[in-house]
Amino acid sequence: MSATATTGASAHRSPGDWALKVAPWVVLFVILAIVPFQFPSFRVEQFCFWMTLAIAACGLNLLTGYNGQISVGHGALFGIGAYTTGILITEFGVPLFGATVASAVLCFATGILIGLPALRIKGLYLALVTLAVATLFPLLLEQFSAITGGSGGLQITSPQLYRGEMRERPIRLESPVAGLENDQWKYFVFLGITVVIFILSRNLIKSRVGRSLVAVRDNEVAAESSGIPVSQVKIVTFGLSAAIAGIGGSLFALDQGQLYPSSFTIVLSIYILVAVVVGGAASIIGPAIGAVFYGLFSDVIVQQMPDRIQPARAVILGVLLILLMLLAPGGIVGGFRTLQAKWSARRSSALNSGPDPIV
Amino acid sequence: MRDFLQILLVGIGDGAVYAMLGLGLVVIYRSTGLLNFAQGEMAMFSTFIVWTMWSLGLPMWLAILGGMAGGFCVGALVHQVAVRPVGDPHEKPLAVVIVTIGLFLGLNGAAQLIWGTLDRSMPPLFGRGQVTVFGVAVAWQKIGAVIVLGVMVLLFYLLFQHTKLGLAMRAVASNSESASLVGIPVPRLLMLGWGLAAAVGTVAGVFIAPNLGLGTNLMQLTLIFGFAAITLGGFDSLVGAVVGGFVVGALSSVMPRYITIFEKMPLAPAFILILAVLLFRPEGLFGKKQVTRV
């Protein structure tokens, strides 16, 4: 799909086309930079949550969108990232973003572990196993309540200077920049991490490794016979995907400051999947668009509805998922690409149509 | 020993319910080849229909029949509008998974919209009484579950082996293309299969609701138990679902009792079972071996 679009554009490349390509990104970054100054603090906090969701969706997209391994259990990996961060900070005094790195590493290892059985268990059956993982995860947190705090929750604290003495206090991200509020600082830190992750994923997908991911998805046997180490690719993809989801979870922990098992149920896994599918699976920016869509929908639009009909949120999302699969499996990005392809086809036919073609 | 027997019997009673849910899953797998992740939510939804009719004053058995009819309609409708148009589950697994996940969300939300988020209580179908056999007390409700399961299996057997309709359904399951060539209305039979599966799920829901309280999360754990049952039994085997259901029920009742690490998560043994079977014997105990041609 993207191949046809890019060849269409490169056929007659001009400075105008280049500007057309860069301009949307410039506009996007300007908007992203202005946003935290235009909205009240609670909205900025919500944007931070959307970013953690976008990161997790980016990880899931690598695995499911590009590599074709279905996971309905990324909420659990997100949760492992979150709890690792919380426990490392509270129990072991690890610095905040050091814990994020450690969470990514641990989730990478977990992903590898899940990836091994996934070599044999495929398609619908892998979906079943991951669904079971997602259902089991909150129970696991309750079972090991000695370290996770169980349903009472985990308060993430670190030793901080308070009224002249060191005390265990709830963590917070303090802004080192005068003129930036704490939440605005957090927004920019999260935004930086999110952008870096999306750019790295883009580079990965455009690389040789990325092409082998897609080759494995499209036809395993053909990939194998053209020399792609299929098992390695699948396992490492699972690891990377899990690590990225774990970073999302880690930021979620830093964002919330407290963790409860009820935040990591099957529903979370489903919402991560919603972000991928609505935005557009197998497109880099799709999961980010999907996460923003989900955020706008559930934090802004649904909040306008009376309490009684708020469960309609799930109904609307469910119906939307089904309709997307039936009408536009490529999600928002896929739909946009189709429109773009139509438009550029019309434009090029307009350009080429000097005398009418002889039929 | 008596203690062990007691726990085992409780597990077997639970297992009968997992088997009921499993039967529905198998019927759907056999006819449409997909794992229906929304099966639990369909059962939850129709159990709420039973509750509504019962609380309006209908006798319980009539309410259950009504709920089964309602469930049948939900299942048939779901197949017609959502599942069939997506296409072959083994060619497009992601699309099918997403559709069933969409159904999961949609049905769960719809139930919350209609019935609210408070848990309702439902009386056990066979009362709260117990009977003591060899010094072990067994609730009538558990015995009832096993009997109802037996009746269900008998009905399924009669349907599939001794009626024209059942023969046609088996033809669709074994080769839908050839079936349609000999004039069998395949789509209508698939719809019937989905309706049946949902109706069977209703009964599972009716048995679970008195224990857990009837809420919109009613079936989320039970669904995984049901899947464990059919994974062990073989995804396409009705007998397998029953045997698998009993094994899963017994394991998840006995193991948390004696192994402390499973104490708060009876789901863990079921999960380990799913993983182990899929890894080492993907066709389960009674399932047909799947051969993929390259």
Automatic annotation (TrEMBL), chain A:
InterPro entries: ABC_transp_permease, LivM-like
Keyword vocabulary terms for this entry: Cell membrane, Membrane, Transmembrane, Transmembrane helix
UniProt KW Transmembrane helix keyword: yes
Keyword Membrane: yes
Organism: freshwater metagenome
Chain ranges passing through the membrane: 22-40, 47-66, 72-89, 96-118, 124-141, 187-205, 235-254, 266-294, 314-339
Identification of the protein by name: Unannotated protein
UniProt subcellular location: Cell membrane
Automatic annotation (TrEMBL), chain B:
Key words, A-Z: Amino-acid transport, Cell membrane, Membrane, Transmembrane, Transmembrane helix, Transport
GO molecular function: transmembrane transporter activity
A matching Pfam family: BPD_transp_2
CDD domains associated with the record: TM_PBP1_LivH_like
Cell compartment(s), UniProt: Cell membrane
GO biological process: amino acid transport
Membrane-traversing stretches: 6-27, 60-82, 94-118, 138-160, 189-209, 221-249, 261-280
A GO cellular component entry from the record: plasma membrane
Signal peptide (UniProt feature, chain positions): none
Membrane topology, record value: Multi-pass membrane protein
UniProt record similarity statement: Belongs to the binding-protein-dependent transport system permease family. LivHM subfamily.
Protein name: Unannotated protein
Lineage: unclassified sequences, metagenomes, ecological metagenomes
